[in-house]
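note to self — DONT lose this again. spent like an hour looking for the file last time. sequence + predicted structure for the chain T wanted, 66 res
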Amino acid sequence: MAVEESLDHDVWVARCVAHMVELDPKLDPELARPVADDMCSRPRWRSMSPEEAATAVFEFGKKPRQ
């Protein structure tokens, strides 16, 4: 089990939201919370630290669509 998987759900979500807001200070934390909550329920994201997951989702959003 990854260390991050041992984090409490609410702690993981709070840290993910906090990092999302660091990455985009204009982001409303209450709008980010449902996204982070959904991410926390998915093994792919949950296997990452909350900060890594937030960064990865922001990087994914920057990729140009083809």
